[in-house]
Amino acid sequence: KELREIPAPRGWPIIGNVAQIDQNFPLRTFGEFADQYGEIFAIRLPGGRKINIACSAALVPDLSDETRFKKNPQGALEQVRNAVNDGLFTARPNEPNWGIAHRILMPAMGPMAIRGMFDEMHDLATQLVMKWARHGPSYPIMATDDLTRVTLDTLALCSMGFRFNSYYTPEVLPFLKSMGSFLQESGRRIGRLPLPEFCYKSENEAYFNDVKEMRATAQGVLNERKREGPGGRKDLLQAMMDGVDKVTGQRMTDDSILDNLLTFLVAGHETTSGLLSFAFHELLSSPEAYRKARDEVDRVVGSGPITVEHMSQLPYLEAVLRETLRLSAPIALYTVEAQDDTEINGWDGKYSIPKGQPVSLLLTKVHRDKRVYGDDSLEFKPERMLEDKFNKLPSGAWKPFGNGSRGCIGRGFAWQECLLIIAMILQNFDLFHFDPSQPVGIKQTLTLKPDKFFMRAIPRDGLN
Ligand code: HEM
């Protein structure tokens, strides 16, 4: 293949391309650049930093080769370290706490452990059903808010034995408020003009107050466990407290436990709530897919209680989740860094990446690559994600959970939780957009979620 130069939109001295980037929705700007420049382009940020943005599925296999490219938190993710330091999600390549935590926590997130969490997931999903049933058919349900409540409560209960009880608070919890503004500001901080720090005094104060609020919540969870003891639980938090790393013989320090508790609270519910919200939105916008999904639930589960055995018998719902993640990956961009000077192969040529330079994979484009998914790549069609077709996708065409050793540790957790919640909601309600004439937008913090997505839920015959 011919070696090509990576195109770059023209920017300004010092500030680079920052003035061109929509600060509330950088992904929109990146998408526009992709339409203009093709499968890869480069942008410059203040301070002369250059980031390459990869947009085609062809580039992904090279970028997924962990001997040549490694995750090294950049941009907004580097800022997130202000709250969680070297926790699993934000650790730099050679930080030892990553390996210790990874090896100790993998088993606590393995298939058997997740199966064992089913009853607690079921308990909280039932509370969501009860809440929506009480609202009655004409109430505008703020779907994303309620789904965020259920995913936060589920994550905290299953992995830490902690009950947030966020259904019972009409207001958004202070933890969630802080997290939302912290993540948004983490994104904004990278686009800041290089002015003296005092120009950002009030932003900085609010930002570090949010950090305090979030860390206090995690500390509260840890204190409660220390006070009450495990009470027979063998969950993620207990693994953090008791686990010994077989490679180094070390335990997780209290600081590392706190960093990772917070990491799980943040990484484990925003993303899942985004997936659930987008999935309901897609189903409501695609009557045929909705009918097939509900038929599957009626056929497999019927009107009785949903059990853990049902979870492996819902292939169409799984395809709905995969297709939703293809079109609306909640983490729409992740970044790796070249370990040495190297080249990556695209559809249209190959490109050289110097040592130390970051490349971000823009999933909103990679997942819509027409050369993989065809001319209807923008359409929601769960059929293309049924098991046999899904298994034949070229490597690199579907990466919503990231890559390799730095891929998502909570994938199985999210999968079981989402299957259960969607199945239970479809079993119990007929769903409608609250006002079909109102377009649903997208909101970007660190993750993507639908914005202003209201639903109506009408109970079907008899609740389960
Ligand atoms: C990593 C996506 C659910 C915990 C990641 C990454 C992605 C991702 C893309 C890699 C990010 C990068 O390379 O920078 C998702 C999606 C989810 C989901 C789409 C839901 C649909 C969860 C859940 C948990 C979780 C439920 C916790 C129970 C983590 C952690 C990491 C991670 C701790 C860092 C892993 C490491 O680097 O060692 N996730 N995630 N995620 N995820 Fe998830």
Question: Would you kindly provide a written description of the structure presented here, covering whatever features stand out?
Answer:
The protein has helices at residues 26-37, 60-63, 75-84, 96-105, 111-115, 118-135, 143-160, 174-190, 201-228, 236-242, 254-267, 270-285, 287-300, 315-327, 363-366, 370-373, 387-391, 411-428; strands at 40-45, 49-54, 69-71, 141-142, 333-338, 342-345, 350-353, 358-362, 429-433, 441-444, 448-451, 454-459. Strands 1-2-8-5-3 form a five-stranded mixed beta sheet. A three-stranded antiparallel beta sheet has the order 4-12-9. α3 (75-84) packs across α8, α8 (174-190) crosses α9 (201-228) and α13 packs across α18. The protein is globular, with a radius of gyration of 22 Å. It has 464 residues and is an alpha+beta fold. It has 18 helices and twelve strands. Helices cover 47% and strands 12% of the residues. The model has no long low-confidence stretch (mean pLDDT 93). Protoporphyrin IX containing FE (HEM) binds next to α11, α12 and α18. Protoporphyrin IX containing FE binds at residues 71, 88-89, 102, 155, 263-264, 267-268, 271-272, 275, 330-331, 334, 400-402, 406-410, 413-414.
